[in-house]
Automatic annotation (TrEMBL), chain A:
It comes from Nocardioides pini. Residues 117-167 form the RNA polymerase sigma factor 70 region 4 type domain. Keywords: DNA-binding, Sigma factor, Transcription, Transcription regulation. PANTHER family: ECF RNA POLYMERASE SIGMA FACTOR SIGM (PTHR43133:SF50), RNA POLYMERASE ECF-TYPE SIGMA FACTO (PTHR43133). This is SigE family RNA polymerase sigma factor. SUPFAM superfamilies: Sigma2 domain of RNA polymerase sigma factors (SSF88946), Sigma3 and sigma4 domains of RNA polymerase sigma factors (SSF88659). Belongs to the sigma-70 factor family. ECF subfamily. Residues 29-91 form the RNA polymerase sigma-70 region domain.
From TrEMBL, chain B:
Keywords: Membrane, Transmembrane, Transmembrane helix. The chain crosses the membrane at residues 43-65. The lineage of its organism: Bacteria, Bacillati, Actinomycetota, Actinomycetes, Propionibacteriales. It comes from Nocardioides pini. Residues 195-219 are annotated as: Disordered. This is WD40-like Beta Propeller Repeat. Residues 195-206 have a biased composition (Basic and acidic residues).
Length: 185, 414
């Protein structure tokens, strides 16, 4: 009888965990998928990143006390996974092609500048790209990015600066600071 | 970081790319299935070891911490270290405290170096340090706030800078610390620099063909005959190839790899990653002395870190992430046969990891940093199955972070 009660208790706890986790996934999956897509650059990679992150979150669910920190936990796992040496090697190998990566929505009102910029963002080294996505898409502060990436705030700044410099160098002339008014600021 | 038009445009471009994406591809069942795969993978190596041992009817003390019972088979004439079979569980919280670390340890957070039981404040942040002449050679960040570019510094006994070159790779240090190598870029080409620790011989410089800085070159380790194994990265494909730099300045490529792992300066064996399968990787041990001929291969482990005598190579989980590896296998370097497995307590249920940047203290002992929960520990693992906690108190770390790292690890993937 005792064993049955214990089993029922464990079953209830598992049900509670799944219900809580399911509620979190339902609320946040679409938004976090977008971040995964920007980090990975394609849907196959994004699905893999997000699924791994959710799976690791599921495994750690009972140990995470601060539910407000869940998004940050998922972002950290996705960034770490995406930057992992083995995965990078795989992606480079799989994607070493002359064709451009997947592009997002076609820009009509800015003559394709946005699409071009997205293509260039995809060519940035993983850490720079992570900083760009977290800063300009997730709009995290430098301190928050440093926390997610496990690096110093100074490194966040320098990585962002390098990324922007690389984008300026590669992007169309319309983004050149001499033509876009950066110098005037 | 006030917005500029370019920053605004990046912001807009990312939102226009991502905002229309309306995907929620997973159910909780999908995620649970993936979680079970991760758990199985974490347990797979240890489980396979237990199964193998049970198959030959040697009892294994599952669940115990420390060495499993020793085999009844008497030792052969040739010392068959490691001398136990089975899985050794690592629980740093309950492991006995061992003697002082034989290798220097850097605490990144405190900016200190611990060596011989003494802790020294470092004047600046170093990512690597190894004794050289009457002082040190260190790898530092060109911009202290920027972990992207590194430089090499020759230091006096009090860490005063005597010479500095940047940009440079990290250091490769021979097993006994008597030789060290790095690569430096002069704006036109990478040059591989090898020196003796005691400064007895002039440094050996091997310039490589002209190439950009991002065609990264890094010494991985040493090979017999004073040769250096170097990894060279193709900046277009990102693939890292192995190159043997001979003492006479000759270079011999060992083609077809994705990542260069480790080398043995005794046997001339090298480990390279050859495939990534999406949720795992495949590795080969090759013989650098035979033009890189394959010796054996595996898709069960990431092969990093030959023992100083070349007899063993370490097998970390095949899908290695910054979390580290929940298991560590000691494999016969010549055959790939598994000799001993370590498994971190909690590996089957939680995110715990042994950092792959381990250091061998001698032929039969290695030290590793590991994270379990929010604490980072240093442990000494003997090939006789002993587990000790060393290096002082554990430190608090955030998930994915580490504060403690060996100053000159035997395995370096930076």
């Amino acid at each position: 009888m005792d064993a049955t009660l214990v089993d029922m208790g464990a079953h209830d706890r598992q049900s509670d965990k799944d219900a809580d986790f399911s509620a979190y996934m339902s609320a946040r999956q679409t938004a976090l998928y977008r971040t995964a897509y920007l980090l990975a650059g394609d849907h196959a990679g994004a699905e893999d990143l997000l699924q791994v992150a959710f799976a690791k979150l599921y495994l750690a669910w009972d140990r995470i006390r601060d539910r407000e920190a869940l998004d940050g936990y998922v972002r950290r796992i996705m960034v770490n996974e995406n930057n992992s040496l083995w995965r990078r090697a795989w992606k480079r190998r799989e994607h070493s092609t002359d064709t451009m990566p997947e592009t997002g929505a076609v820009d009509t009102y800015d003559e394709g500048t946005g699409g071009a910029l997205w293509s260039f963002v995809q060519t940035l080294p993983p850490k720079q790209r992570s900083v760009v996505v977290l800063r300009y898409y997730e709009q995290l502060s430098e301190a928050e990015i440093a926390d997610v990436l496990g690096i110093s705030v100074g490194t966040v700044k320098s990585q962002a600066s390098r990324a922007l410099a690389a984008l300026r160098a590669r992007a169309p002339h319309s983004l050149n600071p001499h033509e876009s008014g950066d110098d005037a600021r | 970081m006030s917005p500029t038009p370019l920053e605004d445009q990046v912001h807009d471009a990312l939102h226009r790319t991502a905002d229309p994406v309306q995907r929620a591809p997973f159910t909780v069942t999908d995620v649970r299935t993936r979680a079970r795969r991760i758990q199985r993978r974490r347990a797979a190596v240890a489980g396979a070891a237990v199964a193998a041992v049970l198959a030959v009817a040697i009892p294994v003390g599952a669940g115990m911490v420390g060495p499993s019972p020793r085999s009844d088979v008497p030792p052969a004439t040739e010392p068959p270290a490691p001398r136990i079979t089975g899985t050794v569980r690592i629980d740093p919280r309950t492991a006995p405290v061992g003697g002082e670390l034989a290798v220097p340890l850097i605490n990144v957070d405190d900016q200190t170096l611990t060596i011989g039981g003494e802790t020294i404040d470092l004047p600046r942040r170093y990512d690597q340090l190894t004794p050289y002449a009457d002082g040190w050679v260190g790898i530092t960040f060109v911009d202290p706030q920027d972990e992207g570019a590194t430089g090499v510094e020759v230091l006096g006994p009090d860490f005063e800078v005597r010479d500095a070159v940047a940009p440079s790779s990290h250091l490769a240090v021979s097993a006994d610390g008597s030789r060290l190598a790095w690569a430096e870029h002069d704006g036109r080409r990478w040059t591989v620099v090898a020196r003796d620790r005691d400064g007895a011989r002039e440094e050996r410089r091997t310039p490589l063909p002209p190439g950009p800085q991002d065609a990264r070159v890094r010494p991985v380790g040493f090979l017999p005959g004073d040769a250096v194994l170097v990894g060279t990265t193709d900046p277009v494909t990102g693939r890292e190839s192995a190159l043997v730099v001979g003492p006479d300045g000759t270079t011999s490529p060992l083609p077809d790899s994705l990542v260069v792992g480790s080398s043995s300066e005794v046997t001339g064996l090298v480990s390279v990653q050859t495939r990534f399968t999406g949720d795992g990787s495949c590795w080969q041990v090759r013989d650098a002395g035979a033009g890189g001929a394959e010796v054996w291969r595996t898709c069960d482990y990431s092969l990093l870190g030959f023992s100083p005598d070349g007899r063993y190579v370490l097998g970390f989980i095949d899908y290695l992430t910054p979390d580290g590896s929940p298991t560590l296998a000691v494999l016969d370097a010549a055959t790939g046969e598994r000799s001993l497995d370590f498994e971190l307590v909690g590996a089957r249920t939680g995110v715990v990891g042994i950092n792959q940047e381990v250091a061998w203290e001698d032929d039969d002992t290695l030290v590793a940093t590991l994270v379990t929960g929010d604490r980072q520990y240093v442990v000494r693992l003997g090939l006789d199955g002993t587990v000790e906690r060393v290096g002082g108190d554990a430190v608090d770390v955030q998930p994915g972070d580490r504060a403690l790292m060996f100053a000159a690890p035997s395995v370096l993937q930076r």
